[in-house]
Design goal:
Structural class: alpha/beta
Number of strands: 7
Strand order of the largest sheet: 3-2-1-6-7
Largest sheet: 5 strands, mixed
CATH superfamily: eRF1 domain 2
CATH class: Alpha Beta
Strand content: 15-25%
CATH topology: Nucleotidyltransferase, domain 5
Number of domains: 1
Low-confidence stretches: none
Number of helices: 5
Order of helices and strands: EEEHEEHEHHEH
Shape: elongated
Mean pLDDT: 85
Length: about 150
């Protein structure tokens, strides 16, 4: 599994996340020898939609004739993941505005990155230096570091 090498500057933040977990990492080393340290971990348990929904999908009646059709069930699981990603972006935006961090590297699966992009503020657009479409959130930090700085 090859990935391109990423330069991670000193004190730069690396956010590794998916729809239920976010690792806020900071490079305590330099760009030649990165040393990612965990600043914070955000986590939420997202039960499957079947556990979140209260009832079976509804049915609608056709306005003409006797036709009936099923209404697609709301995907509560995806809604909760999106809400979690929104909260991650809110936290990052606050850090960007306060000057806590200057640059971010975002590492997330493609779907999660798409949701996150929808919540970029001007400050975040300026801060995001790179987006990497990988799912590394379940790896230990030293493995993430190895994959990024390979």
């Amino acid at each position: 599994m090859s990935s391109k090498t990423v330069r991670i500057d000193q004190n730069e933040w690396v956010i590794v996340c998916d729809g239920s977990k976010a690792l806020f990492l900071q490079n305590a080393g330099d760009s030649k020898f990165p040393n990612l340290q965990t600043r914070e971990v955000m986590e939420q348990t997202v039960p499957p939609t079947s556990e979140l929904g209260s009832d079976k999908p509804g049915r609608s009646h056709s306005s003409v004739g006797n036709g009936r059709s099923a209404v697609e069930q709301t995907d509560f699981h995806t809604q909760q993941e999106d809400e979690f990603l929104r909260s991650v972006m809110t936290k990052l935006d606050a850090a960007a505005h306060s000057g806590q961090m200057k640059a971010i590297i975002l590492v997330a699966p493609p779907r999660a990155l798409g949701v996150m992009r929808q919540h970029y503020t001007h400050a975040l657009k300026q801060a995001v230096r790179e987006e990497i479409q990988k799912d590394y959130v379940k790896m230990p930090v030293y493995e993430i570091e190895k994959h990024l700085a390979a």
